[in-house]
Amino acid sequence: MGVVGRLSRASRLVEREVRDYFAGEGMDSWEFDVLATLRRSGSPCTLTPKDLVARTMVGSAAMTNRVDRLVSKDLVDRETDPANRRSILISLTDKGHGVVERVVDGHVANAARLVDGLDRTERIEFDRLLRKLLISLGDTGGV
Question: Radius of gyration over alpha carbons of the chain, in Å?
Fold first, then answer.
């Protein structure tokens, strides 16, 4: 029970710190997640909604809502795929690319700060143990 309790408390504290960082940047963590997922896909930073859903592990209805909100902020474009008119493509706009590039370094620095209480060897071992736990729980999406 102690391990699960500490893991739960650590998760809440980390989530709060990440949420606060993104709030300071004027965005929600889910916005960064979608923008960073498009960025990681490589040039031209374009994915289908189905690929976005699979890579972010968010339901399709939630993704539709998220894309709508990002389109309204001019952070992503939604266009018909010229190679398949029945398919839609979601792409980073220049503004969206600029936002994710500006915020990613701070996010990485914030993440490093959050695990700064562990030395390098401890972080490596902690990462290995968390990966093992996640796999044992059937969650292989982020490992």
Answer: 17
| Nearest partner of 50 among 32, 65, 63, judged by Cα | 63
Integer Cα distance of 66 and 47 in angstroms: 14
Of the candidates 108, 52, 98, the one whose C-alpha atom is nearest the C-alpha of residue 75 is 98
Angle CA(12)–CA(58)–CA(112) in degrees, nearest 5? 40
* pTM of the predicted model as reported, rounded to 2 decimal places: 0.81
- pLDDT tens string 128-143: 999 999 999 888 665 5
Q: For strand 76-81 and strand 46-47, is the pairing parallel, antiparallel, or unpaired?
A: unpaired
Distance CA 107, CA 103 (A): 6
> What is the C-alpha separation between 139 and 81, in angstroms, rounded?
32
- Is it the case that residue 107 has pLDDT exceeding 90? yes
Per-residue pLDDT reduced to its tens digit, 12-44: 999 999 999 999 999 999 999 999 999 999 889
Q: How far apart are CA 27 and CA 54, in angstroms?
A: 22
**Encoded tokens for 9:** 């408390």
CA distance 97 to 91: 9
- Specify which residues 46 forms β-bridges with: 91
